[in-house]
Design goal:
The complex is a heterodimer of chains A (about 130) and B (about 250). By secondary structure, chain A is mainly α. Helices cover about 75% and strands about 0% of the residues of chain A. Chain A has two domains: about 1-80, no CATH class; about 85-115. Chain B folds into two domains: about 1-80, no CATH class; about 95-250, no CATH class. The chains are: A mainly alpha (about 130), B mainly alpha (about 250).
Amino acid sequence: MIIYGTAILAICHLLGVYIGDVLGMLIGVKANVGGVGIAMILLISARTILHRRGWMPARTEDGVGFWAALYIPVVVAMAAQQNVVAALKGGPVAVISAITAVIACACVIALINRTGPKQDDTWKSGTSVDTL
Amino acid sequence: MEMIEHALRANSLVTAFAFVGIIMWISVYLSRWLTFGRIHGSAIAIAIGLALAYWGGIKTGGSKGLADINLFAGIGLMGGAMMRDFAIVATAFEVHVDEAKKAGLIGVISLFLGTIIPFIIGASVAWIMGYRDAVSMTTIGAGAVTYIVGPVTGAAIGASSDLMALSIGTGLIKAIIVMVFTPLAAGFMGLDNPRSAMVFGGLAGTVSGVSAGLAATDRRLVPYGALIATFHTGLGCLMGPSVLFLATKALVG
């Protein structure tokens, strides 16, 4: 059933966020430490384990795939509720530091990525992206 | 007309689905016919979203963009942190574990660089513009890391609310620049494989900026970038009020 997939996703999400909160508390930070990342790792592990036992039929996978496919629309809705007005009101200090920081980071990204090993295209397989 | 408005308002999340669907449809159309597919449909949709957020902010004076307009309250739920994180976690299903493992170390290094570099730049710009005390420099520098690290750090070291607002503004502008310019700079940054997406996730910071930037570039790269970027805020909140503040204090007294 599709809901099994969605439920697995939800359980991983909640567990991950909980662990992230506990981690934050343990190291004394007022923030969630990597909750979403931990949830992703949990989901990847759950998929691997369930696949191996054959407990992951295609219908169950669809219960996760649907939400993964909704990702871009959700991000569009996220963009539509950013506080753009406040951002633009920040004045020159905010604008200059933000732009300079982004440019510097982009250069470092380019530097690291150009020195890295070449990659093949095998990673492109198995994604549930609907081509726009 | 009132009846329609009532139906839309009473079903706000459903309204949001319909509304975002229409935005996507228009964006894909514009992408195909105006830019001949050169600019990704999702990049246009995100830009439209930001423009609508600006319009909503001007119209209501609120802080949640379009979601502050009564009729579009559902946008707030659909694009809120809960749904965003749920969808991000779902994309992990597509991760090729070997690829992610291969780039693990460089991802973590990027994460540290992505905290330290923006901080140094933010704090330096603050110093140049006349904010010369350690608290102001740290708060603005932390804002340049992400818009959550800024106020969390500011609150921890006792910054004024004006400074916090400035710091949040810095982080928001950074996130918006990343959202809009990532697809344009993707070639320059070499953003075309999982390893590069993880480096990007560590260095570009903010889950919102990274997730939207990658979505607009190549949706398949999203989980790799998000996997790293999600640790960004935690690391920033850890380093901001501690190591980075003490280092700044040691430098400027």
